[in-house]
Design a protein that fits this description.
mainly alpha; Transferase(Phosphotransferase), domain 1; two-stranded antiparallel ribbon; about 10% strand
């Protein structure tokens, strides 16, 4: 295990080195595939220290790259993260801070891997939505998740529109669906894990690159109904 400042995510040179680590882990795939896989993991861990306390207590911690430190495995997997600073204001500050953290990382991953910035932003939006859902599920209040997600997305959109060069302009937004009485994430993005040799054709349960019927069937099976 090792500590990694989250500012590394905004460094294209570091991302290129990380693609080599990803290649050892996932097999030889295109840089765009490996970059997307790695960003899928990194973005989820990056936003967790901000989202989870916000859902639980109403006070977020700063997701800014200069405030977050990762705990990484020797193979480069992102295991955990923590933030050194609390955000003193409310949801507007959190939305702006998420955009300020995600956008330079998306830019670096796109430059280093050739992945589409729009696709990488979609991955980040789904990571935020997923963390909202997970945090809400631990409190038994998933009914509030769509409202929280919409409010946060509104503030993120305002911040993104004010940020020069940001390709995300409020779409896609976090999306959810209900299976039985269970709220689930309706992904807009794909991690591309199924395109890597060592996980070939192994699509995530919520993968959008499968028919809606197959996705619902697999989700029901996972949820036990």
């Amino acid at each position: 295990m090792a500590d990694l400042p989250a500012t590394a995510l905004a460094d294209p040179a570091w991302v290129r080195e990380d693609l080599d680590r990803a290649r050892h882990l996932h097999g030889s795939a295109s840089p765009a595939v490996l970059g997307t896989i790695r960003w899928y993991s990194a973005s989820s861990v990056l936003v967790a220290p901000a989202i989870e306390p916000w859902v639980h207590t109403g006070t977020a911690r700063d997701p800014g790259l200069e405030s977050v430190t990762f705990d990484v495995a020797p193979d480069g997997r992102f295991l955990d993260a923590w933030s050194s600073r609390a955000l003193s204001a409310g949801v507007a500050e959190l939305g702006a801070a998420l955009v300020a953290a995600v956008d330079p990382a998306v830019t670096a991953f796109a430059e280093a891997s050739g992945a589409s910035p729009r696709a990488l932003w979609a991955v980040a939006v789904d990571s935020i939505a997923n963390r909202l859902l997970w945090a809400s599920s631990t409190t038994g209040s998933t009914d509030s998740t769509p409202r929280l997600a919409d409010t946060l997305a509104d503030h993120m959109e305002r911040a993104a529109l004010d940020r020069p060069g940001c390709v995300w302009r409020g779409s896609p937004r976090p999306r959810f669906a209900t299976l039985g009485e269970q709220l689930v994430l309706r992904r807009s993005s794909c991690c591309l894990l199924y395109e890597a040799p060592r996980t070939r054709d192994d699509k995530c349960v919520s993968c959008p690159r499968q028919t809606p019927e197959e996705r619902r069937r697999r989700q029901r099976l996972l949820l036990g109904f």
